[in-house]
Amino acid sequence: MSSITELIRKEIESLSTESTRTNVGTIITLADGVARVDGLSKVMYNEMIEFPNNVLGIALNLEEDSVGCVLLGDVSSLKEGDEARTTGKLLSVPVGKELLGRVVDAVGRPMDGKGAINAEKYLPVERIAPGIIPRKSVDQPLQTGIMAVDSMVPIGRGQRELIIGDRSTGKTTIAIDTIINQAKINKQGEASGDPNFRAVYCIYVAVGQKNANVARTIKVLEESGAMEYVTIVSAPAADNPANQYLAPYAGCAMGEWYMENGMDALIVYDDLSKHAVAYRQISLILKRPSGREAYPGDVFYLHSRLLERSARLNAESGNGSLTALPIIETQMGDVSGYIPTNVISITDGQIFLETDLFNKGIRPAVSVGLSVSRVGSAAQIKAYKKVAGKVKLELAQFRELAAFSQFESDLDAATKASLDRGARIVELFKQTASNPISVEVQTAIMWAMQNNFFDAIAVSDVNRATQSLREYMETQGKSACELIYSTGKLEEDTEQKLRIAVEDWKRTFS
Amino acid sequence: MLSKSNIIVREIVKISTDESGLVEHSRVEDVLSALREINPSGHLEILKSYLVEIRKKLRLQLVEVEVGCQPNESLISGLKSKLAKHTSGSLELKVSQNNHLIAGYRIRLVDDVFEDSIQSRLRKLSQSLIC
Question: Which residue among A130, A135, A423, B81 is the one 20 to 30 A from B103 at the CA level?
Answer without folding.
Answer: B81
